[in-house]
């Protein structure tokens, strides 16, 4: 991979460009930089989630995900480079199936609420969806491998399921169950 950072304030970005891992410079609003930034923001939000009380298995999974997101960011920073492994997508598929199997079927749409950790997991989910859209937009201009899009798609689904798991874990006493949307349309139909 490219050079490791030895200093942070290089001032090379003062002209509105940033360096990629292969040494090329692109505009800071380049689609590749946008995708890298969204993946970085997602990883940072998962770091916030990790600062909360969590079940040990969820914590261990999120730490692995942080490393995989760093790999994804590295892959995005070097055009044509492959760093995110196919096993990473499979790991998310397995975790999604395992955690989803422990949950009751949804009765209605749920709100991004409940315990603090569940709410933060929902924030992570929405950032994962944005990162997925950014990677999809980049793929229209510069074709990418399918793994980055697949990973972000599965991860957003997993974060939704983990939010439900975290509400049930209720480690902060503010959760306990899903917070269901009270649909006016459905309420009228029940009258």
Automatic annotation (TrEMBL):
Keyword ATP-binding: yes
Region feature (Disordered): 1-23
Highest taxon listed in the record's lineage: Bacteria
Entry GO MF terms: ATP binding; corrinoid adenosyltransferase activity
Keywords: ATP-binding, Cobalamin biosynthesis, Nucleotide-binding, Transferase
Enzyme Commission number(s) of this protein: 2.5.1.-
Pfam families: Cob_adeno_trans
An individual GO BP term: cobalamin biosynthetic process
Swiss-Prot/TrEMBL catalytic activity: 2 cob(II)alamin + AH2 + 2 ATP = 2 adenosylcob(III)alamin + 2 triphosphate + A + 2 H(+)
Every Cobalamin adenosyltransferase-like domain range: 8-165
Family stated for the protein in its record: Belongs to the Cob(I)alamin adenosyltransferase family.
PANTHER family to which the protein is assigned, alphabetical: CORRINOID ADENOSYLTRANSFERASE, CORRINOID ADENOSYLTRANSFERASE MMAB
Description of how the protein assembles with itself and partners: Homotrimer.
Protein name per UniProt: Cobalamin adenosyltransferase
Species in which this protein is naturally found: Piscinibacter aquaticus
Highest classification ranks of the organism: Bacteria, Pseudomonadati, Pseudomonadota, Betaproteobacteria, Burkholderiales
